[in-house]
Amino acid sequence: MANLGGLSGAGGLVVGPPGWSGVAAGRKPNISLVVPVYNEAQAIEAFVTAVRDVFAQLHASFEIVFVDDGSIDGTATVLSHLCLRVPGLVVVRLSRNFGKEAAMTAGLDYCTGDAVVPIDVDLQDPPEVIGDFLEVWSRGVDVVYGVRRERHESLGKRVMAQLFYRGFNAIAVRPIPVDAGDYRLMDRRVVDALRSLKERNRFMKGLFAWAGFRSESVVFDRPARVMGVTKFNLSRLISLAMDGVVGFSTLPLKVSSGLGVLVALAAVAMMLFIVVSALFYGNPVAGYPSLMAVLLFLGSVQLMSLGVIGEYLARMVSEVKERPTYVVEAVVASEVGSMATPALTVS
């Protein structure tokens, strides 16, 4: 039978054979680690050392694809020096800070491995877990995602994470695994399927779940960050959550419509009550206080509904513009130790 992998049908995509099929035949797999970095100069060398120590004990070759997301500290310098003395490194330098989701997308576009592992550079995603990922993957599982058993983070961040996961799964068409971040192993055909998705507002956890494929979890303890500080402040977390909700659920629009119907019914009922009270019982109609209460209530409902519609509309405008998800300034690979021809735009 001919291999039809990568061909698109009518509105669909036909993926190729799994990367683990070659592993099952005894071939040494090549694993790509995708590492978005932004102002992480202090953490990079420790991360590379930890990864090399782990793969020294595994029957697998590896490449590390660093995506420098417009860092303004010494990250670019550290990565350039590492490329001169450490094999298997690829550095994709973006022209500015596009955000972690875009940087991860760039890494998926530039990696070449049979399987791909998105991982954070701060070592909160323990590289030692990759061995467990590989063992499950070799059994024919396309996606092996890490589930955090223990999270050494602030109480506020843990509470917000729990609220988001449960709230998202309550309204999304395709739920995401609770307590699973981006740390996972994905077969090459899963990555190819993800690369075919061209939306600009990307919520990667949702896209991972949307793609489907056979999946299993590996539980691990998430240690505290060893060095540096997190770049995800409250506003970025809220923005990411909004991208997830708007991108994978239409429930907010339905709630807005339903609320409008309820308010209309309540207004009709109140109107009938006032008419009956005035005509049959001679009760005086309440004036200014009741009028202001009704106006303020209706105004707040309208503004809330417009806000919901605006979130969807803003993202539609972004998609219609068809701007690239990221812009690459340069690509450096340690195999040649020189600057590759830069790709100006990748959509």
Automatic annotation (TrEMBL):
Domain of life the protein comes from: Bacteria
Spans through the membrane: 259-281, 293-314
SUPFAM superfamilies the record matches: Nucleotide-diphospho-sugar transferases
Signal peptide per UniProt: none
Record-annotated Glycosyltransferase 2-like domain positions: 32-193
A GO CC annotation given for this chain: plasma membrane
Keywords noted in UniProt: Cell membrane, Glycosyltransferase, Lipopolysaccharide biosynthesis, Membrane, Transferase, Transmembrane, Transmembrane helix
Tagged with keyword Protein biosynthesis: no
Biological process (GO), any one: lipopolysaccharide biosynthetic process
Pfam families: Glycos_transf_2
GO MF: glycosyltransferase activity
PANTHER family the record matches: UNDECAPRENYL-PHOSPHATE 4-DEOXY-4-FORMAMIDO-L-ARABINOSE TRANSFERASE (PTHR48090:SF3), UNDECAPRENYL-PHOSPHATE 4-DEOXY-4-FORMAMIDO-L-ARABINOSE TRANSFERASE-RELATED (PTHR48090)
Stated name of the protein: Putative glycosyltransferase
Organism of derivation: Candidatus Phycosocius bacilliformis
